[in-house]
């Protein structure tokens, strides 16, 4: 994805849809900062060129090789932050595993069969019970309102 020399003053909002990008060039743009969530989901990104004034997203530790030339910084080989010997600042909760979510970013995914807040619920979501209660409540309320409000409806 070549966004070089596009007169970008900030990261375009549509960039979030390009998570499948492998190579991204942002050089020759008057960018002043890269917000921390700009590359959320960019797990396939292997080469990123940014203006020299900017750091690589996630820091130099998020990339295998960072090189500089006269006008740009090239970040290559995105590292998996889950496979480091350094202890994570916010480790994943019990019953979950760490997964990369972009340069220097992680996400915690629940192990099967756990789900819910902090992966504390075991089993599957009770869809039949939830649907039954929701359907019964909706039908009951509809019948109640129909019965109490039909006399107020005008007939032609």
UniProtKB/TrEMBL annotation:
Annotated ranges, domain EGF-like: 108-119
Protein keywords: Membrane, Transmembrane, Transmembrane helix
GO BP, one annotated term: positive regulation of osteoblast differentiation
Transmembrane segments: 125-146
Full protein name: ARAID factor
Species: Brachypodius melanocephalos
Gene: Atraid
């Amino acid at each position: 994805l070549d966004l070089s020399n596009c007169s970008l003053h900030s990261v375009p909002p549509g960039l979030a849809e390009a998570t499948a990008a492998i190579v991204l060039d942002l050089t020759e743009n008057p960018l002043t900062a890269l917000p921390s969530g700009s590359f959320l989901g960019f797990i396939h990104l292997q080469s990123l060129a940014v203006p020299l004034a900017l750091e690589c997203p996630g820091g130099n530790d998020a990339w295998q090789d960072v090189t500089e030339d006269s006008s740009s910084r090239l970040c290559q080989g995105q590292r998996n932050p889950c496979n480091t010997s350094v202890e994570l600042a916010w480790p994943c909760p019990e019953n979950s595993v760490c997964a990369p979510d972009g340069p220097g970013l992680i996400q915690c995914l629940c192990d099967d069969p756990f789900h819910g807040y902090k992966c504390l619920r075991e089993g599957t979501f009770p869809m039949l019970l939830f649907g039954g209660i929701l359907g019964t409540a909706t039908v009951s309320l509809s019948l109640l309102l129909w019965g109490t409000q039909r006399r107020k409806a005008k007939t032609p």
